[in-house]
Automatic annotation (TrEMBL):
UniProt keywords, alphabetically: Methyltransferase, S-adenosyl-L-methionine, Transferase
Protein name, entry field: O-methyltransferase C-terminal domain-containing protein
PROSITE patterns for this protein: SAM_OMT_II
Occurrences of domain O-methyltransferase C-terminal (ranges): 21-173
């Protein structure tokens, strides 16, 4: 087995053990930028009553076969996202600059119900820590990823202040950040 597949499997196990409470009360979730559905499949298998959709560009999902509670929809996250109780965005926003992130976040907000009706956006991404009181190696790694995103794409890694500004600019009212595995964080964002 390839090492990156092992890491992906470890991430899925850890992710699922942490987010059981996160999915309480949800009937549907869409994994935006979900590709061939690796995470959506894991969620669908762990939560058989939850309707899961992997949403990605049409050429990515065309021909993929779902299951009882897993389906695939092709589309453009900059134009519209199908409606669901929750939207999952995993390692997507760091690929994009702030203006593009705000567009994506606004489409996510349009696709979910109000906070009072259980709507939420679930983001799995890096939250760069402050240099004060933090682990120097973790900070160096986070800054390396930040440079990598800037060089390879138009995106970047963000600290909590950066994330908060994006959420506010996209019209969200509140958020909660939980570090989940290594450098990754789980960010719950509410309309």
């Amino acid at each position: 087995m390839k090492p990156w597949l092992v890491m992906q499997d470890l991430f899925q196990v850890s992710f699922l053990s942490i987010v059981v409470v996160l999915f309480e009360g949800l009937n549907s979730i869409i994994d935006v930028g979900g590709g061939t559905g690796t995470v959506a499949k894991a969620i669908a298998n762990a939560f058989p009553k939850l309707s899961c959709i992997s949403f990605d560009l049409p050429h990515v999902v065309n021909g993929l076969v779902g299951s009882k509670n897993l389906s695939y929809i092709g589309g453009d996250m900059f134009k519209a996202i199908p409606k669901a109780d929750a939207i999952l965005v995993k390692w997507i926003l760091h690929d994009w600059n702030d203006d593009e992130c705000i567009k994506i976040l606004k489409r996510c907000k349009e696709a979910i119900p109000s906070k009072e009706n259980g709507g939420k956006l679930i983001i799995i991404d890096m939250v760069v820590k402050n240099s004060e009181g933090g682990d120097d190696e973790s900070l160096k790694t986070q800054l390396f990823f930040d440079m990598l995103m800037m060089v390879m794409l138009t995106g970047r890694e963000r600290n909590e202040k950066d994330w908060a500004k994006l959420f506010l600019d996209a019209g969200f009212s509140d958020y909660k950040i939980t570090q989940i595995l290594g450098l990754r964080s789980l960010i719950e964002v509410y309309p």
